[in-house]
Automatic annotation (TrEMBL):
<keyword id="KW-1133">Transmembrane helix</keyword>
<protein>
    <submittedName>
        <fullName>Phosphatase PAP2 family protein</fullName>
    </submittedName>
</protein>
<keyword id="KW-0472">Membrane</keyword>
<feature type="transmembrane region" description="Helical">
    <location>
        <begin position="154"/>
        <end position="172"/>
    </location>
</feature>
<dbReference type="InterPro" id="IPR036938">
    <property type="entry name" value="PAP2/HPO_sf"/>
</dbReference>
<feature type="transmembrane region" description="Helical">
    <location>
        <begin position="129"/>
        <end position="148"/>
    </location>
</feature>
<feature type="transmembrane region" description="Helical">
    <location>
        <begin position="103"/>
        <end position="122"/>
    </location>
</feature>
<dbReference type="Pfam" id="PF01569">
    <property type="entry name" value="PAP2"/>
</dbReference>
<dbReference type="InterPro" id="IPR000326">
    <property type="entry name" value="PAP2/HPO"/>
</dbReference>
<keyword id="KW-0812">Transmembrane</keyword>
<feature type="transmembrane region" description="Helical">
    <location>
        <begin position="28"/>
        <end position="49"/>
    </location>
</feature>
<feature type="domain" description="Phosphatidic acid phosphatase type 2/haloperoxidase">
    <location>
        <begin position="59"/>
        <end position="169"/>
    </location>
</feature>
<feature type="transmembrane region" description="Helical">
    <location>
        <begin position="61"/>
        <end position="83"/>
    </location>
</feature>
Length: 186
């Protein structure tokens, strides 16, 4: 265990310790955790038909999808190297939902949501980026609140998502033949 583990446990328990005291907050956090990622993906997809700056925005949408997929793919590689036990399995947190079968680090929810937000950010789509970052932070908080992740799990996932967005930004360029083909669909 690292020297930071006690600090990780402290922050995780501080957030998860709020669970179980206010039923409405519990329901909101469970709901956010369960449907937050699909809702974000739907809001991204819905922008495909946006009229303002159509082809640039479509490029950003393609990049956000690629970042999402690459981030989750990177997580699968990390899971081969890191097999971290969930905090509820070692008595660090109280679980509000059913247990998960996969390891705790990194958080797929954090990776997916930050990949989307970071893709918008690195393409200077400031307003949607701000909204997606706010939603990502709420989803990340919900994962710790409901007891399924340590704080470092969501921070690690956020780092993976941001790295994926930067990598895709550098590899998939706007205006290329592939980009023009994809952004002109529908």
């Amino acid at each position: 265990m690292s020297n930071l583990y006690p600090l990780d446990v402290l922050f995780t328990q501080a957030i998860n310790g709020l669970a179980g005291h206010v039923a409405l907050l519990d329901v909101l956090m469970i709901w956010t955790s369960k449907i937050g990622v699909p809702v974000l993906v739907l809001t991204v997809a819905a922008q495909w038909w946006r009229r303002a700056d159509r082809f640039h925005m479509r490029h950003v949408l393609v990049v956000s999808g690629l970042s999402f997929l690459l981030g989750l793919g990177l997580n699968q590689l990390i899971l081969l190297l890191v097999n971290r036990v969930r905090p509820y399995d070692v008595g660090v947190s109280h679980l509000l939902i059913g247990p998960s079968a996969d390891p705790s680090f990194p958080s797929d929810h954090a990776t997916a949501t930050i990949a989307i937000a970071a893709a918008f950010f690195v393409h200077r789509a400031w307003r949607p980026a701000a909204g997606y970052f706010a939603a990502a932070l709420l989803i990340m908080l919900s994962r710790v609140y409901i007891g399924t992740h340590y704080v470092s799990d969501v921070l690690g996932g956020a780092l993976t998502g941001a790295a994926a967005a930067v990598l895709v930004r550098n590899l998939y360029r706007e205006g290329t033949l592939a980009d023009r083909f994809l952004t002109r669909l529908l």
